[in-house]
């Protein structure tokens, strides 16, 4: 059965304005390049933001650059450039991978020295 998604309880999103469908029809906020328009605004429209929302209904040429940036930051947590920026996570992945590889090598060397016995002549001598 297809239809509208179940509405999100108001206590989970507070006083944030629902502005669209979102990534999958749920009323959530997610910064994503695949779904760049979240269903709700990032911040609630209170205080300075509420005043800017009223001002944005007028002429945008009368708004300062800082006011426009404030409005953008009230709607979105990050710009698309910030979402796509590298996080440096590869460093921790590479470090943990190298630690795992070194533990494996040390484990092999320990097993070779203390666990395995002397190799019989039948394995090493080709003439037998």
What report would you give on this structure?
The chain is built from six helices and no strands. The protein is mainly α and 128 residues long. The longest helix has 27 residues. The termini are far apart.
Key attributes of the depicted protein:
single chain; about 130 residues; mainly alpha; 6 helices; rod-shaped
> Any low-confidence stretches, pLDDT <50, length ≥5?
none
- What percent strand? under 5%
- State the major sheet: none
* Chain oligomer state: single chain
Total number of strands: 0
Q: Structural class, please?
A: mainly alpha
Gap from first CA to last CA: 75 Å
What characteristic shape results from the CA principal axes?
A: rod-shaped
Rg, please?
A: 29 Å
Write the H/E string, N to C.
Answer: HHHHHH
* Number of helices, counting only DSSP H or I runs of 4 residues or more: 6
Mean pLDDT: 85
């Amino acid at each position: 059965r297809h239809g509208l998604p179940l509405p999100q309880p108001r206590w989970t999103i507070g006083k944030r304005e629902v502005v669209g469908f979102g990534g999958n029809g749920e009323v959530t906020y997610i910064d994503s390049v695949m779904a760049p328009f979240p269903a709700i605004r990032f911040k609630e429209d209170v205080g300075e933001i509420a005043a800017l929302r009223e001002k944005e209904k007028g002429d945008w040429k009368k708004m300062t650059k800082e006011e426009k940036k404030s409005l953008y930051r009230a709607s979105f947590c990050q710009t698309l450039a910030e979402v796509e920026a590298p996080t440096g996570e590869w460093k921790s992945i590479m470090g943990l991978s190298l630690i795992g590889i070194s533990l494996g090598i040390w484990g092999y060397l320990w097993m070779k020295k203390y666990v395995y016995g002397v190799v019989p002549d039948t394995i090493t001598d080709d003439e037998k």
